[in-house]
Design a protein that fits this description.
It is built from eleven helices and two strands, in the order ααααββααααααα. With about 300 residues, it is mainly α.
Length: about 300
């Protein structure tokens, strides 16, 4: 597989695919952060997580269309407005569906799987009815166009660097919420002992709703970032949901550092292997490797230490 390339060519290939993998890593991590909160902290198997991501992508598409037609002079800042609305709208949708559906299914993970899978089908059909079956995309502003040249054969797209920077900011924000805020303290208390948390005055129903809402909002941010590197369709979220669950489970459900490490490893492995073989074979080999590790370490790369 490597014999047809010289050492310098292999170095350039690994560097290029490594930078390409950073864009995939950004999408994986943004998706997995929301899912890690919902699945890792609440035990809810949210099969509609990809559809919340696509909701954020469609909000970004609508925002770009409004700015392009009505405020062309301000088009350079549309993404920041879209980022705000993507989080707010998807978080509100998450709170609504938690109140309507999810709150009745806590402690019943298989039921949440079936219910959210049905929700994902409903949302897909809704997107298809409103936006059509064809994929849509956004026009990048001028300051996100082009690439940085690091060598004769290595170029880094500016939009990919921007998405990576956004991912770092969101990850730090999630860390602050989970481990340095009153909400995060209450959330971890509910996870460890729901009855005792309720006994000391924590509104567990509110914590559940706000947690699910934040997880869906982060998925909306992932959808906003996704428009920077790909087109959006009604079923695009399903292309990432399996990989996202893989990232969360492999890293260790409920651990932030495990989610980051798992997303980086899986994205880089898939990106590099896809250059030398088909995309499906790269996914198969990645899955086999992850399954092998989980057989030896079922709790994932990192696990939450709980005093018993």
């Amino acid at each position: 597989m490597f014999s047809d390339y010289s050492f310098s060519e292999l170095a350039s290939i690994f560097a290029m695919q490594g930078f390409a993998g950073l864009s995939l890593f950004s999408v994986f991590l943004l998706m997995a952060l929301g899912l890690a909160i919902i699945f890792g902290q609440m035990g809810v198997i949210n099969m509609a997580h990809g559809e919340f991501m696509i909701l954020g992508a469609y909000i970004t598409y609508l925002t770009s269309h409004v700015f392009e037609t009505m405020f062309p002079g301000l088009y350079g800042i549309y993404f920041f407005i879209a980022l705000f609305f993507s989080f707010i709208v998807t978080a509100a949708a998450g709170a609504f569906f938690e109140w309507l559906l999810i709150r009745h299914l806590y402690s019943r993970p298989l039921d949440t799987l079936l219910a959210t899978w049905g929700l994902s089908l409903i949302l897909q059909q809704l997107y298809r009815s409103v936006f059509g079956a064809r994929e849509v995309g956004v026009t990048l502003p001028d300051w996100l166009m082009g690439s940085l040249t690091l060598g004769d054969s290595i170029e880094i797209p500016i939009n990919g660097l921007f998405v990576l920077a956004l991912t770092v900011i969101v990850t730090l924000a999630v860390y602050f919420i989970m481990y340095r805020s009153r909400l995060g303290c209450q959330l971890r208390a509910v996870v460890l002992n729901r009855k005792m948390a309720g006994a000391v005055g924590i509104n567990t129903a509110f914590i559940d709703r706000i947690t699910f809402s934040i997880g869906c909002g982060i998925a909306g941010v992932a959808g906003c970032a996704f428009t920077m590197i790909g087109s959006t369709g009604p079923t695009a979220g399903q292309l990432y949901i399996v990989d996202t669950f893989l990232v969360v489970v492999f890293g260790g459900a409920g651990t932030l550092i495990g989610t980051v490490a798992s997303a980086f490893g899986i994205a880089q492995a898939q990106s590099v292997m896809e250059f030398f073989m088909s995309g499906s074979m790269a996914k198969v080999l990645t899955l086999l490797f992850v399954v092998g590790i989980l057989m030896l370490r079922p709790q994932g790369l990192f696990s939450v230490k709980v005093r018993r």
